[in-house]
Design a protein that fits this description.
Helices cover 8% and strands 31% of the residues. By secondary structure, the protein is mainly β. It folds into 2 domains: 135 residues, Thrombin, subunit H; 104 residues, Thrombin, subunit H, CATH 2.40.10.10. It has a 6-stranded antiparallel beta barrel with strand order 9-10-11-14-13-12. Strands 2-3-4-8-7-6 form a 6-stranded antiparallel beta barrel.
Length: 274
């Protein structure tokens, strides 16, 4: 991942990388990723949320994060996507659309709640407790996604969703954010398939089932989903960053904060801040 530099421009670019998604350390220690070599969404995902953001260090740099609708007034995303030292929310989010700039339901953001022990890895390792909640100004009609009781075992088929860059470029000027939602079929990886110290009971190692593909810049905060016993999608992960340091999006594992591991905090935080 990238390290935080002193120059304003470098900080801005590093932050942009993180927020956009993939392995960012300035804006977040491993940042989320955008889906490179994924494909256009094959079905509707009512709980998918796009979150437009601006890089705090450089207002000319615009980006996007992902999120998941988990309640009629609450969105779950990554803490680094609402970290004011890294980005500024544009003030609205779009829920339930296959398109980044049209369709679905647009709502204003009234509050953000980050996990109290969130820590940016700053290029030295993975982000810790990288979860945040966004409260909407009004309820939406889209159906929230259920948080799974637990992630499937290593090898379980999963899917990633996001509006992140479809081009694996280290410089933000080379990123291409698609208008159409992208999806990628993946699987739960074993802890050993990510770098030592990256995956554990709260961070899921994720492996692409498509060659040279993975989430990348712009997918931070977006969902990793799996099928329940009845074939319905349920949420298991929130895009947090790369699963190994210094590896391009398309050549390494992804790292996802486990939503089931934090279900208790999520529900308590919503109740306290409703």
């Amino acid at each position: 991942m990238f390290s935080l530099k002193s120059s304003r421009r470098t900080v801005a670019r590093a932050a942009a990388v993180a927020l956009a998604g993939a392995a960012c350390a300035a804006m977040m220690t491993g940042s989320a990723e955008a889906i490179v070599n994924g494909k256009d969404s094959t079905q509707r995902y009512p709980a998918m949320v796009s979150i437009p953001v601006t890089v705090a260090a450089d207002p000319t740099l615009k980006g996007v994060c992902g999120g998941s609708l988990i309640d009629e007034k609450w969105v779950l995303t990554a803490a680094h996507c609402v970290d004011p030292t890294l980005v500024t929310l544009d003030g609205t989010v779009r829920i339930g659309s296959d398109f980044r700039k049209s369709g679905g339901t647009v709502r204003k953001v009234t509050k953000t709640v980050s996990h109290p022990k969130y820590k940016n890895g700053e290029g030295e390792g993975p982000n810790r407790n990288d979860l945040a909640l966004i409260r909407l100004d009004r309820p939406v009609a889209e159906k929230p996604i259920r948080i799974a009781d637990k992630p499937g075992r290593p090898g379980t088929p999963t899917r990633l969703l996001g509006f992140g860059t479809v081009v694996n470029a280290s410089d933000p000027t080379g990123w291409v954010f698609p208008d159409r939602l992208q999806e990628l079929d993946t699987r739960r990886g074993a802890v050993s398939e990510c770098a030592p110290g990256y995956a554990d009971s709260t961070r899921l190692c994720t492996i692409s089932q498509v060659p040279h593909a993975m989430a990348c810049n712009g997918d931070s905060g977006g969902p990793q989903i799996q099928r329940d016993r009845k074939g319905r999608w349920e949420l298991i992960g929130v895009t947090t960053g790369p699963g190994a340091p210094g590896v391009p999006c398309t050549e390494g594992p992804g790292l996802y904060t486990s939503a089931p591991a934090y279900a208790g905090w999520i529900h308590k935080a919503m109740a306290r801040n409703s």
